[in-house]
Amino acid sequence: MNGRIVDAHHHVWDLSVRDQDWITGPELAPLRRDFLVSDLLPETEAAGVDATVVVQTVTVPEETPELLALAAGHELIAGVVGWTDLTSDGVADELTRLRELPGGAALVGIRHQVQSEPDPEWLLRDDVARGLAALESAGLVHDLVIVPGQLEAATKAAAAHPGLTFVLDHLGKPPIARGETQPWATLVRNLAALPNVVCKLSGMVVEADWSAWEVSDLRPYAEVVLDAFGPSRVMYGSDWPVCRLASTYAGVLDAARELTAGLSQGERAEVFAGTAERVYGI
């Protein structure tokens, strides 16, 4: 496959700066080390990736300015999906402040770890709705990191904010390792029916059997989102370095290429660059 490639979803962290408290248990031990832009660069260069979007990992206000500074210092990073407290009365002012920081022009969206919220309807709270409205006013997008049980609430939230673009990370984390498609498929199709929602073709290998997955295991889920959203509302993301639990950077990209091999050249160009460039304005 030729053409421009945007990796619309990766992370970086430096454990000497901040602990990643979600890295717990022996199964996640391979992630308990620093993953810096200098570690990513050889991977992107070898894979022919032209630009990336770095995404928040922890819900602390200090991380987003750090990611913006990385974008200012590295041409590879074209966009930052950061975090700020969407429930804060001062969220609009905080978004303005972030954009005035070094690298602030790279801020393209905000993400909250909704998957960790005990309230399955967290996205429908009044204070969250105010924060989502502030994102829309600021011209930013909202990345959704949710599990299948939260897809219904996400659909209601997206319907209530038709002027805000929502980006579904990791297909909504379907149970690929169990080989189950329902009720996820129905729920994600309901979400896709809303024109202000797009989906990242990312994170699939981590939801599969880490040691034994094959592209055929991923295909039913990729086919659902490609059919439901259409290629012009699907964007590729590596989910590096989390993807390293189940694959390599190149292996994830190769899998995505195989999963999209049946698309036209123009449709593949949308998945691998055009959608991310348009949605994130990069």
UniProtKB/TrEMBL annotation:
SUPFAM superfamilies (UniProt xref): Metallo-dependent hydrolases
Recorded family membership: Belongs to the metallo-dependent hydrolases superfamily.
Residue ranges of every copy of the Amidohydrolase-related domain listed in the record: 6-282
Source species taxonomy: Bacteria, Bacillati, Actinomycetota, Actinomycetes, Kitasatosporales
Gene3D superfamilies in the record: Metal-dependent hydrolases
PANTHER family: AMIDOHYDROLASE, AMIDOHYDROLASE-RELATED DOMAIN-CONTAINING PROTEIN
Name of the protein described by the UniProt record: Amidohydrolase
GO molecular function: hydrolase activity
